[in-house]
Model the fold of this input.
Amino acid sequence: MAKKAKKTAKKKTAKRTAKKTAKRAVAKKAKPRKAAPASARKGAKPTLLSGGNPQIPKGYGDAPVQAYIAASPGWKREVGRRLDALITRTIPDVRKAVKWNSPLYGMEDHVWFLSFHYFAKYVKVAFFRGAALRPVPPGKSTQKNVRYLDIHEDQPLDETRFIDWVKQASHLPGERM
Done:
């Protein structure tokens, strides 16, 4: 008798599981598609997030980085253009992407040595292996290897030092992201 009770219980459990699976499949199909975000629609201006970071869809290559820079506000756009130009001129075969609303630069796909991000009053350049650069960039991080360079609107960028850091960083192992 115990065997028969176990078989009946197993059948009931299997039926409940099948019903739940069928309900989930119907629910998935029934969900209406959401409209594309304003930043992804043609001709729409990207949303600016905190610090003036444009909300650009994740993408690989030069086009998303240029879209990010073009959508940047005021003086930060010029800093972004200058940083991109210096990096590209220094490392002609650099790989580019936009992830987490920040441009990334690397030597191979998904492995990055540098990024920048906008804040309200400055642009923060992150060197992912910055602790190995000489001289070490001035901004410390909670992460052991990361160092930052903060660029303020009223302070000129030391392009010679920046180019040297970019060259050094491009030869170090990147950060896989």
